[in-house]
Write a structure and sequence with these properties.
About 10% of the residues lie in helices and about 55% in strands. By secondary structure, the chain is mainly beta. The protein has one domain: Outer membrane protein transport protein (OMPP1/FadL/TodX) (Porin, Beta Barrel). A hairpin with a 3-residue loop joins strand 7 and strand 8.
Length: about 500
């Protein structure tokens, strides 16, 4: 099983539909963004010292301690993503629109009667979105150096063709077996020596990727208020992953006179579905030493995902200019359906926060978060994941995430703004991966009802490689990603 998967790592960098449980998957499910209510997002997620917002139950649960009344919130949203991909001088654009919910939460507050300095305690339950996978990518350009078929030929070298040919469900089911039966590779000078059938001249390479899904967290939290000076909270998080990816990679020679009688085009499709549920625990505190200052801190255990389930399948299609002895110009081969269950531990998180309050007029706030992505770990009962976990430690590093926000009030109305920067998880500057967020929002609040509107603009840049194995390499595709998210929170106090 893992031998099959290991052979596919060469094509699983960054955003591919990787059919391997490797460092790509570990990073994908370890990264989070700041999602939740519109107020929280319009202030860049800088709520670690402010509290009284349901989103904080997934970051600093001490925020629940600042609730003085019970509250129900829900937040519908719509996102517009745009990704420009430049490969070998050619630029293509991928777009995606998606409607979803980023928050649904209920907080119940109970006052403590008598002379105790504990003023009240709170209980909250609901859902916050943690990450969004809804993106489309279109990469296309001309390559006159090599082909993906060269990688298959290199992988096959040293293996007798009969072993590959007679292995439709085993070690080579997802790469060499379909590559052989669609004549992407052929033997040369012996049964274990291979060449690709791709042309020597330039070919048009194109890849379209459609990713969808999200990572959400069902959260249950408890908190308390001590003398309006100290607020404590703890929460149990139950994140769940829903991820789908479908990609189509094609190679076409640029004109029919190039290598006449040989390769015309090749298409490889990959489909992946991932489902998983996890558990984590968070503990937080907020102190208000003076009325104008709040200081907070929180820690989150690693998230333990048990029985993450991958299900994937591939198909290969080739077309040639001249027919074979059976008058066939085209060939098609489909892999079996692959499945694998594994466990994932994502890194722990720690944060510190500060908020400065200007009476009823407004506030400014800042959060700092530390995450070390090299501490993610894959495991399974039937496989040790040694090489994959070594790759996690080698490729990823610690990051420093900063969130800034402000809010100013004018009677029942508020205006808000924020900025956040999430550091690159890649070590040794091997890639970019830094994410920047700019946000703006408006709010209206009455005694029992409130509504908040927010806009968040996210931008990032990364390098993406179509394939690569040993000395067979391609130039990176430069991905410039931009997402605009609009959300509206409705809230009711009782």
């Amino acid at each position: 099983m893992k031998k099959i998967i290991g052979l596919l790592i060469f094509s699983s960098l960054l955003l591919t539909t990787a059919h391997a449980q490797n460092e790509v998957d570990a990073l994908r499910y370890s990264q989070t963004s700041f999602y939740g209510t519109a107020r929280y997002m319009s202030m860049g997620g800088a709520f670690g010292a402010l509290g009284a917002d349901f989103s904080t139950l997934s970051t600093n649960p001490a925020g629940i301690g600042l609730y003085k009344s019970s509250e129900l919130t829900f937040t519908p949203s719509i996102s517009f993503s745009n990704i420009d991909a430049t490969y070998n001088g050619s630029m293509r654009e991928g777009t995606r629109e998606k409607f979803n919910f980023t928050n649904l939460g209920l907080v119940m507050t109970q006052d403590i009667m008598g002379k105790s300095k504990w003023k009240n305690f709170q209980f909250g339950i609901g859902m916050n979105r943690m990450h969004n996978f809804n993106h489309n990518y279109l990469i296309s350009g001309v390559n006159d150096q090599n082909s993906m078929a060269d990688v298959f030929a290199r992988l096959a070298n040293g293996t007798n063709f009969e072993v590959i040919e007679e292995d439709p469900y085993g070690d080579y089911a997802f790469d060499l077996n379909p590559a052989w039966w669609t004549f992407l590779i052929d033997t040369l000078g012996g049964p274990s020596s291979y060449v690709s059938t791709a042309p020597d001249g330039p070919i048009q390479q194109t890849k379209y990727i459609n990713n969808s899904g999200s990572m959400n967290e069902v959260v249950m939290a408890f908190g308390a208020n001590y003398n309006d000076r100290l607020y404590i909270g703890a929460s149990f998080g139950f994140p769940y992953i829903r991820y789908s990816s479908s990609s189509t990679y094609t190679e076409r020679k640029l004109n029919k006179d190039q290598d006449p009688g040989e390769f015309r085009e090749f298409e490889r499709t990959q489909d992946l579905e991932t489902r998983g549920t996890g558990f984590n625990f968070k503990l937080g505190i907020i102190a208000r030493p003076v009325n104008w200052l709040r200081v907070g801190g929180s820690i989150q255990t690693p998230t333990y995902y048990s029985s993450v389930s991958d299900e994937w399948q591939e198909s290969y299609f080739t077309r040639f200019d001249t027919p074979d002895s059976q008058n066939n110009y085209t060939y098609y081969e489909e892999s079996p359906l692959g499945t694998y269950d594994y466990d994932l531990k994502t890194p722990m998180r720690a944060s510190g926060s500060i908020g400065i309050i200007f009476g009823r007029a407004g506030l400014i706030s800042a959060d700092y978060e530390y995450v070390d992505y090299s501490n993610a770990k894959l495991s399974a009962p039937d496989y040790d994941f040694i090489s994959e976990n070594d790759a996690i430690q080698a490729k990823y590093t610690s990051t420093h995430n900063i969130r800034l926000g402000t809010e100013w009030r004018y009677g029942p109305f508020s205006i808000r703004g924020g900025y956040a920067i999430y550091g690159s998880p890649y070590s040794n500057n091997s890639n970019d991966g830094e994410r920047n967020y700019y946000s703006f929002g408006l709010g209206y609040r009455e005694k029992v009802f409130f509504a908040d509107l927010a806009w968040v603009h996210e931008s990032s840049e990364e390098d993406y490689y179509l394939y690569g194995y040993e000395d067979i390499t391609v130039n990176p595709s430069k991905l410039e990603s931009m997402t605009d998210l609009f959300m509206l929170t409705f809230g009711f106090r009782f």
